[in-house]
Amino acid sequence: MLRNWRDLERTEELSPRQERWLRRAWWLYWSMLALSVGLVVLRVVEGDPPLQILFSALVVAVWIFNLYALRKRLRGHEAASAARQEG
Q1: Domain for residue 1, yes or no?
Q2: What parts of the sequence cross the membrane (predicted)?
Q3: What are the CA-CA distances from residue 44 to residues 17, 41, 53, 59 (Å)?
Q4: 30 CB-near residues (< 8 Å, 6+ apart)
Q5: Residue 18 forms part of a structural domain
Q6: Mind listing the pLDDT tens digit for each residue in 18-61?
Q7: Is 51 domain-assigned?
């Protein structure tokens, strides 16, 4: 029986394909965070208006949040997988 995606998210049951994509997303998110930080530094060095610097800093904050959420999901999946293998 197919279950709702929210049920899958709660139980952290992921297919191997989904897990691979999450791991790829992890590296993509880190890359985007690095590029966003570089953009903030570039804007500060070039003396851009504070509003543009603030917007770029907001983009950095969004990528940090995305990384945190993805890491939490991956760790939950790893814990659920380990528990399933043990018992």
Answers
A1: no
A2: 26-45, 51-70
A3: 41, 5, 7, 15
A4: 67
A5: no
A6: 888 888 888 999 999 999 999 999 999 999 999 999 999 999 99
A7: yes
Burial class of residue 69, CB neighbours in 10 A (0-12, 13-18, 19+): exposed
Tokens 């297919």 -> residue: 15
Residue 16 identity (one-letter amino acid): P
Amino acid 49 reads P
pLDDT in tens, 70-83: 988 888 888 877 77
Q: Would 73 be classed as within a structural domain?
A: yes
Range of the domain at 82: 23-86
Structurally, the chain folds into a number of domains equal to 1
Residue with the bigger pLDDT between 87 and 77: it is 77
